[in-house]
Write the structure tokens for this entry.
Amino acid sequence: MAKILNGLLIIMALFILTPLYSQDMGEIAFINELADKKTSEYGDAVKFLILLSDKKSNGFKADLHVLQKKAIVKGPGYAQNTPLRYGTLALMIANYLKLDDSLLFKIFRIRRYAFTACVANDIMDYSRNEWDIASGGELVEIMAKVSEMSGGNK
Amino acid sequence: MKKLSLLISMFIIVLSSSYGFSAILVVSVKGDAAYMEGGQWKPLSKGQTLTEGVKISTGINSTAVLNLDGHILTVKPITTMKIYKNRINNKTSENNIGLKFGGLNAKVSKLTKLKTKFNITTPVATSSVRGSEENVHSGPRRMLVSGPSGSFRITSPNGVSSDVSGRSSYNQEGGHSRPNPLFFHLHENSIVKLYSDNITEEEKGIHVFYGDELIENTDSPIRVFDYNLTKSTKTVLQIIWP
């Protein structure tokens, strides 16, 4: 009887402690480090989009391959540490969210009109242009909006 | 063996019932939420008690709900905030939250015998909740404050204050020293769209669907149709103040 009781108590303790370790601290650390960066990189956007897709990041090359398969990134992409411009980010986001309600982006799937589509959907700011480099904080804020629009954050 | 059983029992009891003795209680956690301790992020869990000065962060599609002396604070997804002050005595209840980025929803209870101060500070301005509920969003692009109910005062670092209530909202864009007008969020998203008589239903539909992309060199799509007005239009406007 004592052995059964001890076993039950140990199982209960494990049930209480296990949820503490099932959360992803890596994702939170990534977001907070990114928010402090003065300049975001192409690899940051790739990783963020993978996380938004409810997938686990397996490194830049693997993540980029996943986005290429989903047609979010078309072509070879850029190097991981390339500074991230608004136009590049807008094109990835417009493909991810399928912003086809924008007439010009629907016809010309290029960075310029991806950017205007993002501005029209209040994802990006009209005071920026496609050649500006996004800071880490700006990337985090934009991705939070993307997550909200894609059905998360509810 | 009996001592081990007793120890484990006490451990489980303490974990499940410790929330009764602290002012900051984690009411619920959905997804990934963490608090900073010793320079490291540690998982936040339901029923956990926190102390003044704690930093909290939520991940993608994740939220955390906190109870601060009866006031409910919901930390929205992709948010980092810090509880700078959480104090209560027989005269006042004072809470000061620092929002680094992301969004918060604060439901502030009116404590009948205590003077309540509940402030949310962002890099742009400080909002002081006077009513019951407010939503605060902060990021490099803007600080946005709105309230489903009650009222609040926003104070910028230069001491200028704006009182917000009802359908108005406070919207200050990054790099600007002044906020936008309180009903700015309704600009270009007009409550009522007015068209002249010579605009067909099909044209109205195209305008609604493609909007600003068809219009250049004006600051409002409505102005394009103004050029075609040949008749006056009678409009009845009923203003309901909040």
